[in-house]
Write a structure and sequence with these properties.
With 254 residues, the chain is α/β, with parallel strands linked by helices. The chain has 2 domains: 146 residues, Rossmann fold; 93 residues, ProC C-terminal domain-like (ProC C-terminal domain-like fold, Orthogonal Bundle), CATH 1.10.3730. The chain has 12 helices and 7 strands. Strand 6, helix 6 and strand 7 form a beta-alpha-beta unit. The mean pLDDT is 92.
């Protein structure tokens, strides 16, 4: 996710030489340097050179990283993408002057199609929120929400790309089963998903209405939709969102 963010943002908002990146894995540091970023294995170097810092560690590493930096984070803006780690948990281990914002983006940030939401901590200002919102909107869409909704965002859009990748793969497999070459089936499946999503976003029409316009009486689409309903696609997709959301909530309680 960190790689998706820096590579998605850099050509649109900031030049690579204005972005500092820290990674404990030295080969990753060298790769990032080769790509033009200011890369280091020292978190303190990032804090010394940046007013706003994206925190992209594993959730269990968050307290240690923030405690390690300590007073180096005074007056900084911390933007965390760590699933399940609450604003309160982060604010406990940073100076009182540190502003914290919690964000849930997703990997399509890498191609400028991110779906994200964010929540403000106690010390974060409206100006901080505008900064983060504008930053995220350069690579997609973003919504300011209350923190109690971020686990739902995690289950829906944070984990959602994986669900759609599976859907595209399954559609392509169906095309291959029906006789299409693999490359043709995969491109048609992916383009169909992109086209349908674009119609929802650009027309503003309810997906059910758009579905009804495709599904003529006794036709092929009606037969296909019946098979999806018979297989429980709706319930399975809803359950996937709820399972991922519940997992995010459980991670925040550890």
């Amino acid at each position: 996710m960190a790689s998706a963010l820096i590579n998605g943002l850099s050509p649109l908002k900031y030049p690579k030489n204005a972005i500092y990146v820290s990674d404990p894995y030295q080969p990753a540091v060298e790769r990032l340097k080769g790509e033009g970023f200011n890369a280091t294995s020292d978190n303190a170097e990032v804090a010394a050179n940046c007013d706003a810092i994206f925190l992209c560690t594993k959730p269990g590493s968050v307290p240690g990283v923030l405690s390690e930096l300590g007073s180096a984070l005074e007056n900084h803006l911390i933007i965390s993408i760590c699933a399940g780690v609450t604003l309160a948990a982060m604010e406990e281990v940073v100076p009182k002057s540190t502003r914290v914002i919690r964000v849930m983006p997703n990997t399509p940030c890498l191609v400028g199609e991110c779906a994200s939401a964010y929540a403000l901590g106690c010390a974060a200002t409206g100006k901080d929120g505008d900064f983060v919102g504008d930053l995220l909107k350069t690579v997609g869409v973003s919504h300011l929400v209350s923190e109690n909704l971020l686990d739902a965002v995690t289950g829906l859009s944070g984990s959602g790309p994986a669900y759609i990748f599976i859907l595209i793969e399954a559609m392509a497999d169906g095309g291959v089963r029906a006789g299409l070459p693999r490359a043709v089936a995969l491109e048609l499946a992916a383009q169909t998903v992109r086209g349908a999503a674009t119609m929802v976003l650009k027309t503003g029409d309810h997906p059910g209405l758009l579905k009804d316009r495709v599904m003529s009486p006794g036709g092929t689409t009606a037969a296909g939709v019946h098979a999806l309903e018979d297989g429980g696609l709706r319930a399975t997709m809803m359950n996937a969102v709820l399972a991922a959301s519940d997992k995010a909530t459980a991670m925040g309680k550890k």
